[in-house]
Amino acid sequence: MNGQVHENSTPHEVLRWAHTEFGPDLVVTVSFADPVLAHLANEAVPGIEIVLIDTGYLFAETSWYADDLRRRFGLNLRTVHPHPDVERDVWQTDTDACCAARKVEPLERTLAGKRAWVSGLRRSDGASRANTPVVQDDLLRRVVKVNPIARWTDHDVDSYAAAHRLPAHPLTDRGYPSIGCWPCTRPSSADDPRGGRWSGSEKTECGLHVSGGELVGVRRTTGSTS
Description:
Layout: H1 11-22, E1 26-30, H2 36-44, E2 49-53, H3 60-73, E3 76-80, H4 95-111, E4 116-118, E5 135-138, E6 143-146, H5 154-163, E7 210-211, E8 214-215
Parallel strand pairs: 1-2, 1-4, 2-3, 4-6
Antiparallel strand pairs: 5-6, 7-8
C-alpha cells in the first residue's frame, strides 16, 4: 500500500495522509446516511470541505440531517446538484440513466482536475464491496480513491458514533440501514443492509464506485435477494 498508510492505519491517519499528499486536490464526498465519515474528516483535518451530492431525490430527512450536522459540528459543507435540464422522472423507466445523470455526472464534475477522492465505502456494506482497499486507483476517473473506513464493521461505526455522541439518521430507526434516494430505497433487514436499494431489480450499485476500471457490482448475482 501507499508509503505512509497501510491496511491497519486508523481512519484519522489515512485522512491526514491524504490531505498532506493531495492538499486542495482532495475531494471528500459523503451521503449523510450516517454521520461518521463527515465527523472523522472534520476531526482529522478541521475545516476540510465536505461534498454532498444532492440528486434532487434525497429524503427530506437526509437534507434536514445534513443541515443539523453542519450546524452542530461546524462542517464546511458544499452541496453539488445535477444539471437543471435532467429529465425529472427518468427513474421510473431507467434507473441506470437516472443514477448516471443525478449521481455520476455531478461526481465526475466535482472530481474534474482533482487527484484524489475520499469515500465512505466499507467492506461490510455487502458482497460487492467486500474487497474494498483502503487506497486504490480509480482508473476510470483517474484519481486515487481513499476509503478510510473500509475495514470498519457496523459495530465500529456504531461505537464511534456513540463515543462522539453523534445523532443517527432519522430513518435508521424506521428500518433503513442503507439510505439513498427516496424513489429507490426501501426498508431492509440488517442482514442485507443494501437489500432495500433498487428493491425488486437486479441493480445493486449506482455507478459511483469502480474497482480499477470496472464498475463495482452494478447487478445482483443470480439467486441473491433483492
